[in-house]
């Protein structure tokens, strides 16, 4: 049984969610992604749509909001704080895979966490987008724009809520190129999990 918690961040159209699911399945542990929205909605009394929408809205920085607004935080900041608590609680409960939502930063003080970032060359991601059902765009320009917009949103969210920069390899234990293939990426993560657990004893 796995003893390691895995956080996985990814560029858009790298198949990161599928990699995360295969890793979770191989280790016999849970993957948390959209479930975090459901949990935050349940705990806050908000709708899942409101929680999901709040993940895309932010202004200056969380520290700025805390300093200038006291307890009257914007909804997006309240949701982030709530999700952070949920992520910490899930980590306390045992091994799991957590997708996105700054989980690497939220769990940065734990030693039993493997932080992974999945990236790929832009041209590869554009080709991948053509076969990915989650991608709404159908034209070459639309695909380019959707990838660019989603990456910018993810970077803005991460940079806003952490003291780090999204995609900076120094924030992760393992940065892998999805163009190597899903199975290769999964095996690399599993090997890193094994090495992590051996190092911790």
Would you kindly provide a written description of the structure presented here, covering whatever features stand out?
- Helix 1 packs across helix 9 (182-200), helix 2 (35-44) packs across helix 3 and helix 2 crosses helix 5 (75-93).
- The chain has helices at 16-27, 35-44, 48-54, 62-69, 75-93, 103-106, 122-129, 140-161, 182-200; strands at residues 5-10, 30-32, 96-99, 113-119, 174-177.
- 36% of the residues are buried.
- By secondary structure, the chain is of the alpha/beta class.
- The model is unreliable at 62-70 (pLDDT under 50).
- The chain has a single domain, classed as 3-Layer(aba) Sandwich (Rossmann fold).
- Helix content is 54%, strand content 12%.
- Biggest sheet layout: 5 strands, parallel
Work out the helicity level.
Answer: 40-55%
Secondary structure: number of strands = 5
| Rounded average pLDDT | 88
CATH architecture: 3-Layer(aba) Sandwich
Estimate the strand proportion. 5-15%
Question: Going by CATH, what is the homologous superfamily?
Answer: P-loop containing nucleotide triphosphate hydrolases
- In total, the number of domains comes to 1
pLDDT < 50 stretches: 62-70
CATH topology: Rossmann fold
CATH class group: Alpha Beta
How far from one another are the termini?
14 Å
Which radius of gyration do the C-alpha atoms yield? 17 Å
Strand arrangement in the largest pleated sheet: 2-3-1-4-5
Number of helices: 9
Order of helices and strands: EHEHHHHEHEHHEH
Tell the overall outline. Answer: globular
């Amino acid at each position: 049984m796995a003893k390691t918690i895995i956080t996985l961040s990814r560029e858009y159209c790298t198949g990161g969610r599928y990699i995360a699911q295969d890793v979770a399945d191989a280790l016999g542990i849970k993957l948390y992604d959209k479930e975090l929205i459901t949990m935050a909605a349940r705990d806050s009394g908000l709708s899942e749509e409101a929680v999901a929408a709040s993940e895309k809205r932010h202004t200056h920085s969380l520290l700025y909001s805390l300093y200038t607004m006291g307890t009257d935080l914007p909804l997006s900041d309240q949701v982030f704080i709530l999700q952070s608590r949920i992520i910490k609680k899930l980590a306390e409960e045992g091994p799991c895979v957590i997708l996105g939502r700054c989980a690497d930063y939220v769990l940065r003080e734990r030693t039993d966490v493997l932080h992974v970032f999945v990236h790929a060359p832009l041209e590869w991601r554009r080709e991948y987008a053509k076969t990915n059902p989650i991608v709404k765009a159908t034209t070459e320009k639309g695909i380019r724009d959707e990838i660019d917009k989603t990456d910018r949103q993810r970077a803005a969210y991460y940079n806003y809520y952490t003291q780090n920069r999204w995609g900076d390899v120094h924030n992760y234990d393992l940065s892998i190129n999805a163009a190597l293939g899903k199975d290769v990426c999964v095996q690399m993560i599993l090997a890193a999990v094994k090495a992590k657990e051996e190092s911790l004893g």
